[in-house]
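Deadline looming. Please check this record:
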Amino acid sequence: MLAFMETWPAPAVYGLVGGIFGAIGAVVGHLAAKRFPNARTIIVVLFLASSSQITKLIVIPRIQNDVANANLPQKIDAFTTLERISLEGKTVRYFYRLADSLPLTDGAIMKSGIASTVCAFWKPKLDSGETNLAVYNYAFKDGQSSFNLTASDCQ
């Protein structure tokens, strides 16, 4: 939904959210000013001040998630479909759906099968602190399994 804002410079995103929050604050302040004369200014300032935190904690992560999921679901191979990706701070979660013909497999077995391949991608990100954890979730016909990948897994 917000992926279109990916190419916007950060000040433009903060400005848009600030403008929206300022307008909402003005409306709420106008309504409150009928009862409390000084409320208009206080409410507008509070809404504007909170807009930067809302942008940082909610809007920017939402843009990143929308961008990460823009081309999903995506068929990876004959058995695997990447359904979605969730970015939560420094944790990246992958959600896969596997073909119905595959039996439920333990996450530890899944990890041992792909760790060397995915570590080539994750090691620099985990070592630098850009990412602290990659979580792989697999949905099978008969259940789910998952595993976590940390820097210690990619030595």
Notes: The chain has a mean pLDDT of 91. Strands lie at 74-75, 80-88, 91-98, 133-140, 143-149.
